[in-house]
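Input set for joint prediction.
Command: fold jointly, output tokens.
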Amino acid sequence: MYNFDFEKPSSVADAVAALGAEDAQALGGGQTMIPTLKQRLASPSKLVSLTGIADMKGVSASGGAIKIGGATTHATVAAEAGSYPALAETASHIGDPAVRNRGTIGGSLANNDPSACYPAAALGSGATITTNTRDIAADDYFQGMFTTALDEGEIITAVTFPIPEKANYQKFVQPASRFALVGVFVAKYADGVRVAVTGASNDGVFRWAEAEAALSSNFSASALDGLAASGDMISDLHGTAEYRAHLVGVLTKRAVAAAA
Amino acid sequence: MPKDSGIGASPKRREDIRFLTGVGNYTDDINRPGQAYMHVLRSDMAHARIKNIDTAAAMAMPGVIHIFTGDDFEAIGGIPCGWQVTDRFGEVMKEPKHPVLAHGKVRHVGDPICAIVAETLAEARDAAEAIELDLEELPAVINMADALESGSATVHDELGDNLCYDWGFVEENKEAVDEAIKNAAHVTTVELINNRLVPNPMEARVAIGEYDRAGDMSTLYTTSQNPHVIRLLMGAFVLGIPEHKLRVVAPDVGGGFGSKIYHYAEEALCTFAAKTLKRPVKWVSTRTEAFMSDAHARDHVTKIELALDADNNFTAVRTNTLANMGAYLSTFAPSIPTWLHGTLMAGNYKTPLVYVNVRAVFTNTVPVDAYRGAGRPEATYQLERVIDKAARELGVDPFELRRQNFVTEFPYQTPVAVEYDSGDFHRLVDKLEKSADFGGFAARRAESEKKGLLRGLGVNCFIEACGIAPSNLVGQLGARAGLYESATVRVNATGGIVVMTGSHSHGQGHETVFPQVISEMIGIDESMVEIVHGDTANTPMGMGTYGSRSIAVGGPAMVRATEKIINKAKKIAAHLMEASEADIELKDGAFSVAGTDKSVAWGDVTLAAYVPHNYPLEDIEPGLEETAFYDPANFTYPAGAYACEVEVDPDTGKVTIAKFTTADDFGNVVNPMIVEGQVHGGLTQGIGQALMENAAYDENGQLLSASYMDYAMPRAADVPNFTVDHTNGTPCTHNPLGVKGCGEAGAIGSTPTVVNAVLDAMYSGGHKVDHIDMPVSPSRVWAAMQKG
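tokens >
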């Protein structure tokens, strides 16, 4: 770790101001940032912690949607997002208890790790990512591995998920990291089904359009028979591209069957 | 009725207060006054020529005290190898120099280049980034078969090629084995990879060097399984410090599994730097460094052939292995694929002819050495895989095929040099068939199938050789060390006992178990016995702990010393009771005269030894302290039979261990609870190798699995509740405790059991998959089922 300055503002405005410094970096729960710093792979001049901003914490549900503050931990979502059970369930299986008690939804979405769980939940739910300056639709937000629509210094203050009729997330864990080797989030809304896939693609989280079309007309696992996910799949020590493409199909079926 | 003390009892571990409540004293807990910090700059290339190292800018950085490079060690010895193998042509192995810091070339990612000593660790790391390295990258030698091709780049240019040795065993049997295989009714062949592992003890390595100018005395605190071995290797062969001027302390050590046997560069660097700079110097490995510098494990590529006659009797085994040595010869590396591997290739079977060929290969990878089991898992894995495959090919029950070929008479002279002293392999299988409920397997398989899962049953029988000995034999085999163990038993005036053992406990529980033996012998409470280990200043020269040797070799040393104590105490007791020494009996901590009601307590005798007012001074010396060195007559031979049931998800290839049952023969057992813990740990490590762990290099020699993000370690949820049994063993016939050792069995016996079960599960689903390599990951299982 290199030396850096540290600030922990209590308002979004102060955080935005602090992030104006050259090479300043926002810090959520630090579950990616701190290991990166310890490996000396990043050298920000200043870390601006977002975890002291009360307005960015908490879970509230109203009008068929659930809103989660950007600095809310996975453990809090797991415990308090009961009005969207599939989302609470997803949060409850991210990492381990230590990760869930520190890691935040805003941090996860800002990082957009290609194997993280929350991007699948957000994209699969058509969530809205609210920042200090604007609202961004999930479909516009995710722009490839570790790439998002966020501008320099922009902070995710909240994420709003429309609550579906049914949803489920299936994660097949990579045995070492316990990230998703492949994860599929399926959500059935009145106006159609959304299927979002994490872990599989070199382009990061993506929607599986063919599966969405098939499930929108017939929400059953059998509707997926004969469909195969395609695209630029990841191939690594833990699974070939072919295997990942196969798992997308298996997990989507399981998610449909388990959706509640 | 279980005993509550002595041999066979299971008192809770007295170490746990330290290890479980945070009051242990690990090397990193030690800080010396005026201590400086060392950071090691390591190669990020697998193979490169060092053209220049410019440390000028780094030396000028804040806090920097000194920067060492390979030039500083050129005149000093390199890191020695402790075993010299002689090849099948009578030539000794090639033994390249192993510099403390890379000199001329770097030979693996992680090879140390510079040691930076600074006032703080952060300053040392900052300075490392300011060192200007001019490295000319060379082609990396990674794949062993490629490494042996003519024209391959060479890891050590002065050796001419990458072959360390071409070993044949038993070379005189080679032609007979070839003939037997040619004439066999059936030959089964398996080609397999024994995957490379990273040991991953919980505590990473740490070293602190300290130098006392007043006494010209060097001290090394280090995470070692054998401080005396390090003192000898480092003092005599690297730094030229005689033993009486060098103290090595290995305090609480958080696991080793073999990886902390060896002498590592950082130990010499800290000791040398402390003496040079007149400052204590501390180095703490990061986990990333551990992946790149702790000796790795296994990494064999093997073809094994099993020949059978028309009645399914094994007639011959022939096996050819490429064994990866890595870039340098680690301390005991040459012995692992040879004497700890070839000698076990008869297994539990009366196969009359065995030939083992091993070619050891240098590559641009981290050195490979012993790891829990060391050679014996590699032997067992291939043998038990080929037997299972033969059973399937012949359409016979895999256990019946094994039973038919079991050795049943003991002692048994194998065709691969070793002589098994005791065992009862049928009894182990009999026990296992009951405890693993083979009769209920069909019903369990049907239940699994209802869930859409394929269920498989895998079995395995194994024998291992522990407590490697005797010293004169291992000397003939190439060991450059003896393999005895030592103990000094010091009885205090009021009867308490301190045992100073050459064994080293790094999680095994010696401090609990060793007193049980003394308690049994004298009849005093275990709480009266304290175990001291891990410091060359206050323990007799001993060889440390590895190869399941502590109770098997260190235990008898303590027994011999205690026998001397008892003999002397009887003389004192005889004097006190004015009786004949021959009539003195020791029972329940009191000496009595046979046939009388005269007795004196243990404490009365020990007090007399130190306050010798009424004492036979003309015959015996005062005091009660004895030392013994024990050199075993033979190895010990623990054996076992294991069964594993797995469920395989045909959609994802995921393997779940549903049931794991063991029947082990450890001879006599001192503390059943601790033995059970050892078995659990060994099984978990074996399951880790079978299903998850894999140290993978890319073609450029970059370690792909260099952190826990990619190197999968087994966790509690990955293993089932084990059903283990180690009762009614056949005692070892040649040591006074009848013990065989239990530390490695689980790791040795589990890998083939798991893989055989996975293959059985795939067969049950109609997938004719004859072979799959470890780790049996979901991706690999799925891919195998697509093909077969």
